[in-house]
Amino acid sequence: KKVAIIGNGASASDIGFEIVEVAAKMHHCKREGPSLFNFESKDIQTHKNISRVDDAGNLLLEDGVVLADIDYLIYCTGFHYDMPFLQEERNKIRTAYKRICDLFCHIFPVNEAHPQYDSNTDEPLIPPSIAFVGLPWKILPFPLFHVQSLFVARMWAGVASLPSIVKVRESIAHDIVIRKQQNLPDHYLHCLGMGQFLYCKKLLSMAGLSKMHAAIDNIEAIAMVTKEIRVSRPADYKDLHLMKENQNWIYKDVDNALQ
Q1: Residue 234: helix, strand or coil by DSSP?
Q2: What per-residue string of b and e applies to 109-146 under the rule 16 or more CB within 10 Å gives b?
Q3: Angle at the Cα of 38 (from 99 to 190), degrees rounded to 5?
Q4: For residues 118 and 110, is the Cβ–Cβ distance under 8 A?
Q5: Are strands 66-67 and 72-75 parallel, antiparallel or unpaired?
Q6: Tell me: the pLDDT tens digits for 120-136?
C-alpha cells in the first residue's frame, strides 16, 4: 500500500519507522522547522505539507505537487480537546483551540466563577471541584499523570493547600507570558517539553511530597539519555536495553554483546 504521513514529531517518526517496513511507498508531508523524523530510507519521499485533499482523494501539496493513488493518510499532528459535556454557560469552563483556558498548573480551573476570584485574600484558594489530569503534551505521560493525581488528591483531601488567589492569578498569567516570550502559539499552552520535570517538582512541593523530587530527577536522567539515543540510533533504539552503570543510565546492545 501507498501511505502518506503528516507530522514532524515523535509520533510521525515512530509510526513512520514501523510503516516503512511494510508499505510499498511512504510519503512524509511536513511543515518547515525542527523535526524528530530523523531516519532515511529509499522508500520514503519527503514533501511540503498538504494544502488540501480533493474530492478524488488526491493530496494537493503547498508547492503545487499532487500525490495520487494514496491508500492511507495518517495524521500525526496532535490532538484537539473535545469536551462536549462541559459547556461554558453551565460549567463556567472556557475552551479554545487545543487548550483549556484559565487553569492553575494545567489542572484546576480558576476564573470569574470561582468565589474567591475577585478577592485579594491571603487565604489558600478553595480547590475547585473539577480537575483536569492529562492535558500537558510533549511529556512522559504516566509519571506526570501520577504526580498530577497525587496533587489533586491531596488538595481535595485537605492534606495540602493551594496558594492564595493572588498567587494563582499571577501563575496563570505567567504561563501565558512565558510562552509568548518563547514565540510559541497560543495553542502551545499545555506544551511542557523538558520543563515537565520542574513542573512535577512544583506540584510535589505544593502537595507536601518534596521527598519524591529524587524520583523525578531519576526519571529526567532516563529521559535525557533516551532522547539522545533515539536521535543517534532511530532505527533500533527500541531494541536496546536500558541499564545503570556507575550511577549513570545508559543504553546497551546486550543481545549482540552476549553473542
Answers
A1: coil
A2: bbbeebebeeeeeeebbebbeebbeebbbebbeebbee
A3: 15
A4: no
A5: unpaired
A6: 999 999 999 999 999 99
pLDDT recorded at residue 259 = 36
Neighbours of 162 (CB within 10 A): 20
Model confidence pLDDT, tens digit, residues 214-248 = 999 999 999 999 989 988 887 788 889 999 999 99
pLDDT in tens, 65-115: 999 989 999 999 877 777 778 777 777 888 888 899 999 999 999 999 899
In which element (H, E) is residue 6 found? Answer: strand 2-6
Written as nine digits, the cell of 259 is 553473542
The single residue listed with the C-alpha cell 519527503 is 46
Quote the pLDDT of residue 256.
Answer: 60
DSSP sequence for 115-152: TTTT----SBPPPPS----S--BSS-HHHHHHHHHHHH
Q: Is the Cα torsion angle 236, 238, 244, 249 positive or negative in sign?
A: positive
How many CA atoms lie less than 13 Å away from 176 in the CB half-sphere?
12
One-letter amino acid at 42 equals K
The torsion angles phi and psi of 135, rounded to 5 degrees, stand at: -75, -40
> What average pLDDT is seen over the chain?
90
Amino acid at 176: I
Which residue type does 218 have?
Answer: N
